Amino acid sequence: MxxxxxxxxxxxxxxxxxxxLACLLIFWTCGVPAGEGRIGALSNFGDPNFAQAVAKxxxxxxxxxxxxxxxxxxxxxxxxxxxxxxxxxxxxQARYGDGGMGWITPGYVKNQRNDVVKLSNAADWxxxxxxxxxxxxxxxxxxxxIGSGGETxxxxxxxxxxxxxxxxxxxxxxxxxxxxxxxxxxxxxxxxDSARLAQDLGKAPWEFQSALLNLGEESLWLKKxxxxxxxxxxxxxVHIERLSPGAIVSALxxxxxxxxxxxxWDEATFSAYLRKAPPNLVVLAFGTNETVSEKFAADEFASxxxxxxRRIRAASPAAILLVTPTDFRRRSPGRNSRANACGTxxxxxxxVIDVLHQVARQExxxxxxxxxxxxxxGAHCGTSTLAQMHPPLAREDWIHxxxxxxxxSGEMLMQDLLKLSRTIR
Length: 425
Description:
- This protein has helices at 7-25, 50-59, 77-80, 84-96, 259-263, 267-276, 288-291, 298-315, 349-363, 370-376, 383-386, 403-422, and strands spanning 36-39, 42-45, 68-75, 102-104, 117-121, 126-129, 145-148, 155-160, 167-176, 186-190, 194-196, 206-215, 219-224, 234-242, 246-253, 281-285, 319-323, 366-368.
- By secondary structure, the protein is an alpha+beta fold.
- The strands form 4 sheets. Strands 1-2-18-17-16-3-15 form a 7-stranded mixed β-sheet, with helices on both faces.
- Strand 1 and strand 2 (42-45) form a beta hairpin.
- Helix 4 crosses helix 12 and helix 8 (298-315) packs parallel to helix 9.
């Protein structure tokens, strides 16, 4: 019972109240089990691998950095544009060094881009979405695309966008066997170096073949070896790393993709990729296309997310981060002026975000809420408000962000991640 003449209980209550207020001000969830918490738009629902795989290396001073930190992001068009992941790549590499380009699509794909390399195809080289042309291979490779050509030995070129000092790099090519024939040998050629990869892949539909090349300010061609017989090769992707410490961000995005796209990848080949380039953090950024799907079912989406998370954990000790869709809007009927229309969110948007939270809590992952980021900027009408800012942070379609919007949100995710990492001791 409180005695009004005794100031100690009052002081204790005041201290507790101030502590609770401080927790709210830094977005930290007090009274939760160890390892859980929230910073800004980032929540940790007790990911069992976060402390070792992410917090420990990120807490290490840059001067003591002696390792490679790999960020692997899988998702839809927000990932395929590589603006969001491009900002994360810049932030990590500015802090810890450039570990390499990471994953590269096997050729140019319309309306997709890579922030660090430019891709161009030879005349008869095609880069095809594997789920839409199943006859090329018996299995869909990680990334979801297959590069292939005719008998002329054509291929594709990787041109580095940034000036690089010449150094040894490990180039790993995911090569596939065609349905009706063994693969041809792949030749790697730059202005200063070349290598021919082994031709015998065995019976596996896909296998990584690697070579060390001395690369710098130049282009790298991947094509059929002229000295070896056989059909033109099938290539599922390329992964390039330096032989030095640093950060690597790989963006495996497919325009229009839903979580089913990832689940359709050949599980054994994806596991092999996780062994080839072990990630510290795997990001699943799906949900945008689910919000507008007429076939959307919350329980089915939740089940598929859980399946995806468990597939990753079965093959890797990486931490896992789920990213919600942006708070995007559709124009209201009869309201053509963006300045006067707040727009309406898709019917499934809030349900999708709720399911992502529920699965993150159930499967004990991290979650970053893009909607929280927008609201912190005062965008209470979501992307319709972001599109009116100066400079605009959302595009005219009110679905995607501008490069400036992706940069700003990527910066915030990195800040949240570094702050959350500092709470782990």
